[in-house]
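Contributing new records

If you add data, match the layout below exactly. Sequence lines come first and carry their own label; structure lines follow with theirs. Keep one chain per record. Anything else will be rejected by the validation script.
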Amino acid sequence: MSRVGQAPVTVPGNVKIEIAGRRIKAKGKLGELAFDMHPDVEAARDGDVVRIRPRNNSKRARQLWGTTRNQVANLVAGVSQGFTRRLDITGVGYRAAMQGKNLNLQLGYSHDVPYPVPEGITIVCETPTAIVISGADKQRVGQVAAEIRSYRPPEPYKGKGIRYSDEVILRKEGKKK
């Protein structure tokens, strides 16, 4: 039995949930998201709670039970609160700035790196070395953060590059004489 899948998803009052067959739609103050469930899993609504159950006792259905429950929980949390990911830029002359709908990154290359901001994602540069990425879809927020980080991942000797704010970079000792 899935311990995660057994937990019900509580729906706040400001979020509307529609379950139509295998499709679940959530609508809230931050937008509207939808998720297509696997055929081996079903959802049922009991008042302000959504419960996920496997349709049969197959291994595949039990594997997808907890995953589907967390996907639905992410839908509800995304349209009501949203998700945020922070990036820190470390390095002399490394900085970021918003220019229209593009994020302009200066990362020590001979040219600036423009990153077009996708729909549904908000990017704010609090300081030239701090980027905040936010949106309703957890997967897209994480994907955008990973794409921006991939332009200059942190290196282990001086720690220069773009890293997540909660990421720990294991530093290596340099050459010895």
